[in-house]
Amino acid sequence: MTLSFIVAVSLAATAADAQVTSGQRYDRLAIRNATVINGNGTPASGPADIVIQGNTIAEVVWLDPVAVREGRARRPAADAEIDATGKFVLPGLINAHGHVQEERGGIAQPLDYELKLWLASGITTVRDVGSPTQRTLELREQSRLNQIVAPRLYVYALFGARPAPTSPALARARVRELKALGVDGIKTTGLDRDILAALLDEARKVGLKVAHHAGVEESNAWDDIRGGTSTIEHWYGVPDAAIPGGVQNFPADYDYRDEVDRFRYAGRLWREANSTRLAAVLDSMVAAKVAWVPTLVIYEASRDLQRAQTQPWFADYLHPTLEQYFRPDPANHGSYFFGWTTTDENFWKENYRIWMRALRDFERRGGLIGAGEDAGFIYQMYGFGLIRELELHEEAGFHPIKVIQHATGNNARILGEENRLGRIRAGYLADLIVVNGNPLANLKVLYPTGVEEIQGGRAVRTGGIEWTIKDGIPYHGPTLLREVKDIVAAARAASR
Questions:
Q1: What gap in Å lies between CA 80 and CA 274, rounded to an integer?
Q2: Of 48, 189, 346, 374, which residue is the least packed, with the fewest Cβ within 10 Å?
Q3: Which residues, 6 or more positions from 85, have their beta carbon under 8 angstroms from its beta carbon?
Q4: Any idea what DSSP says for residue 410?
Q5: How confident is the model over 230-258, as pLDDT tens digits?
Q6: What's the distance, Cα to Cα, between the start and end of the chain in Å?
Q7: Residue 17 has what pLDDT?
Q8: Alpha helices of 97-153 — where are they, by DSSP H?
Q9: Which domains occur in the chain, in start order?
């Protein structure tokens, strides 16, 4: 039985049971008999009726399980309802590192493809860290008004867009320009120390958050600590700050602009960090309130290329534009797998072990960890990438309860929206997901394609996000996934 057939069967069954219409907001929508996993790191609890009024959670009513079984539980009134019996309800997932992409490698890719994959994967909010600014601001407004089927967007503009600021004065002017445009924050990479310091100081003055994708550059995590960076993206800059002598042991012919060189020797970086110095870096990040969005998923191909190239959802859901971009090509960022060796993968496996240990240590010391995917690069698809990121957080040693908190409550704090996003609580925005399974037992049930389980002696496909509720509007996950499959099939037929 093929994956697509099983998903189609699941779609038909779920749609037949649905009591709400996908894409329609109701005056009062109730999610009945839910088992709730909140975004604050507490265990699951239920049953509960969650009532949504407009775009807000109006109340969460905890029910007596015995009264529910006997049919005498007192229920809040609603105009429509979703039966969540046997299902788990979570805050909508927040993707803290996404990119809105309408092309890859100069070839058009339909926007609906990405937006619907995000929603089908339970993602109700995306922090966009570097896309065409004006276009993404327009999409942010269309999403706010629910004129498009899309997660809510937070726009972090690329600081280094041409002409890139070349002095501290120009850096400050760029920050003020971006503030005037109405962005939510700034994404920066590859800056000299004086320019980064000016950017961070001016951003603090005008009230903009800053996400720093550090690279092999003059500045590192110490500069983020001194300047008050909001988040360090990925991980460059953290181990660099803990290397005795301040520079990695690069070979004489190393060229950072050659991505094979760059990523090959990135896989040797964490082993050069001194553990005592690293502890000081982590403590200082905690004290300075510098959060960390590691995006473990985006480098996973470096430690297991074959797995990355053969992900099962590629068969039905990988758009041909994205597929072409993934193929090794020096013109495409992240498509660097030329002559990739077993030795390279083994260095990267060690890199992950040390990196994951540092993440555990960072949270243990009081640090704030978020979750993001950086999809559209290096064999990672939108939505699927964030769910895989959560699996890697569990591999790093975090309990699934904490993993879910990373993608909900923690990410809301990173956005500065912890008072209205990331939790299931009266007064918060109605961003929720209804999951056909228990993600605390198996995070794979969060994949929109679900999982296979043995039931009654035969393999059946279950799991998946049944409903993604964004801003009080329920979207049927299997329907979104079917629409994505149709988009891909049409694009493949047109490219033949």
A1: 58
A2: 346
A3: 32, 33, 47
A4: I
A5: 999 999 999 999 999 889 999 999 999 99
A6: 26
A7: 40
A8: 111-120, 133-144
A9: 3-91+423-495 (2.30.40.10), 94-415 (3.20.20.140)
Residue 67: per-residue pLDDT: 87
Q: Quick one: pLDDT band at residue 495, thresholds 50, 70, 90? A: confident
Residue 90 in contact with residue 408, Cβ under 8 Å?
A: yes
User: For 28-42, 300-314, 427-441, 444-458, which range has the lowest pLDDT when averaged over its residues?
Assistant: 444-458
The pLDDT, as a whole number, for residue 226 is 97
Cα-based angle 203, 205, 208 (whole degrees, multiple of 5) = 35
Q: Look at residue 185 and give its three-state secondary structure.
A: strand
DSSP helix/strand/coil, 159:
coil
Maximum CA extent, the chain: 76
Beta strand 123-129 with 152-158 is parallel
Give the model confidence (pLDDT) of 315-361 as tens digits.
999 999 999 999 999 999 999 999 999 999 999 999 999 999 999 99
- What are φ and ψ of residue 363, in 5° steps? -70, -40
**Residue whose entry in the numeric block shows the structure tokens 């894409």:** 23
> How do strand 28-36 and strand 45-53 relate by DSSP bridges?
antiparallel
Kindly give, in sequence order, each residue whose CB lies less than 8 Å from that of residue 114, ignoring residues fewer than 6 positions away.
100, 101, 376, 382
User: Torsion-angle region of residue 217: left (phi > 0), alpha (psi -120 to 50) or beta?
Assistant: beta
Helix (H) or strand (E) holding 468: strand 465-470
d(CA 21, CA 399): 35
From CA 150, how far away is CA 141, in angstroms rounded?
11
CB 179 within 8 A of CB 150: no
Location of structure tokens 């959670």: 57
CA 485 to chain centre: 21
Exposure string for 63-91, b = 16+ CB within 10 A, e = fewer: beeeebeeeebeeeebebbbbbeebbbbb
> For the whole prediction, is pTM greater than 0.85?
yes
The phi and psi torsions of 476 (rounded to 5 degrees) equal: -80, 115
The tokens describing 111, both together, are 């926007």
* Rounded CA separation 295/286 (Å): 19
Tokens 């964030």 map to which residue? Answer: 386
H helix or E strand, kind and range, residue 262? helix 259-266
List, in order, residues 6 or more apart from 458 with CB less than 8 Å away.
none
Q: Tokens in use for 294? A: 């590691």
Query: Residues in the chain, how many?
Result: 496
Q: Is 204 exposed, middle or buried (0-12, 13-18, 19+ CB in 10 A)?
A: middle
Task: Evaluate whether 124 touches 92 at the Cβ level (below 8 Å).
Answer: yes
Measure the CA–CA gap between 461 and 487, rounded to whole angstroms: 23
| Nearest Cα to Cα of residue 177 among 127, 169, 227 | 169
CB count in 10 Å sphere of residue 215: 17
Candidates 425, 469, 416, 473; CA nearest to 184 is 416
